[in-house]
Predict the structure.
Amino acid sequence: MSISWQKPLLFILLLAPFLQLLFDIFAGNLIDPIEEITNPTGQWAFRFLLLSLLITPLNKITPFSIIKYRRMIGVFCFFYASLHLSIFLIDQQFSLEYILEDVVKRPYITIGFSGFILLFLLAATSTNKMVKRLGKRWKKLHKMIYLIAILATVHFYWQAKSATDIEPLIYAIITLLLLGFRVNWKKWLKH
Amino acid sequence: MKKITEHHITDEKYYLNRRKFISSGLGLTATIGAGAGGLLLANSSNSAERTKGGSLLDKVKMTDYGKGLKPHSFKQISNYNNFYEFGTGKRDPAKNAHTLKPKPWHIKVSGECLKKGNYDLEDFIAPYQLEQRIYRFRCVEAWSMIIPWVGVPLASVLKSFEPTSKAKYVVFETLLDPEQMPWQKRPILNWPYTEGLTIAEAMNPLSLLAVGLYGKVLPNQNGAPIRLVVPWKYGFKNIKSIVSINFSETQPINTWQDQAAKEYGFYANVNPNVDHPRWSQARERVIGGGSFFAPEKRKTELFNGYKDEVSHLYAGVDLRKNY
């Protein structure tokens, strides 16, 4: 089976939400661009994070070798997270005072911001060159995605208006399932 | 009363049919009222049209409220709001509110008053002169719009029911009908949506019962056929599609307070000095203002800029505790 078309197709699929947003912006469909870009970009970043976490279990369970797609999904997660943060900075009018105030005073922003910094480290070390250079440490470093997933869960949960919003709960459950897959339960239960 | 004058400042580009708005100001209340009531009923029976704004209201008196403010467009106001009965997204109400049937409509008046009863909306509104008032609208989520409401002063309506001295609060309820309001099938809030005001707040001249927007019958998603407008309070106090008014001796627990008491209180006065636990209330994003990379922000004003009209209501009240 030739794979030459699979990665470009995946690329287009991962880019599609961004193209949709671009279309909405230029077509004048957005009434409050700040909110209407902040929410979807944050959600797509989270979705792709979860999708990247799904790759390893799927790779083990199914006969398909799909691990080669993981990096692109991870990089797109960072791409959407960057857009998400950019809109926040625009909303704060790039004022250092406002940004710091929010990062320090608002726990959900503190958490989200920390998650972004960690995600940036992973994106920056995602090239072939860095994988080689870091060797064994690369794998250790990139396990940080588990922590980032937890930070994203808390960030999403805390920003919700109230318990009326079940979406963060659904994401939290999926995150826990995906993280649960990584735990060596046999070893745990023996103790 | 000093606020109400006859003037035609209306920027023409905001109105489809300005001519219909201009009342003579000399007509007898009864005949004007009859006209208004009749047109309330003339709301379109076509469900798609009900979310695009109904027919024009007749004999609307222009007022000085909001003189100099430039209202947001009808599209912005009617396509971007919260109305959880039709979904939790801000685009959902405009999409889903076509299932609401704003006529016929009855309002139950109960509690500490002499004239309890179940009133037809037409009889309810008919005796009063419809007024246009351009008010600031400040959402608790730190964005704002400017909205040209059409309605009647809440105080006049409430007084007609002759509240007794025991009436300390006025409690409003939204329609409870999951068939018309599909999200009520979900346990996302304790339905029906409930809001309340102190009797003094309710009797304040700023408090309005709105039946229209931009001179047209209120679109479903904005709370047809009748909603509360209290512009010095956060948006969620402005309860929509009201079916019950109760004069109460005790302070009610309003829906969002019930949902998250640490974040949403009973008073919910706009106040830049009292932050929401999760975000600052010092500034607000003016919807559609500025440019993409520099959206317009304005400093939030105490009582949303209506300090002169309402601050006396809160003399001696600790606004930090009574948020």
Remarks:
- Chain A has a mean pLDDT of 92.
- The two ends of chain A are 46 Å apart (CA to CA).
- Chain A has one domain: 6-190.
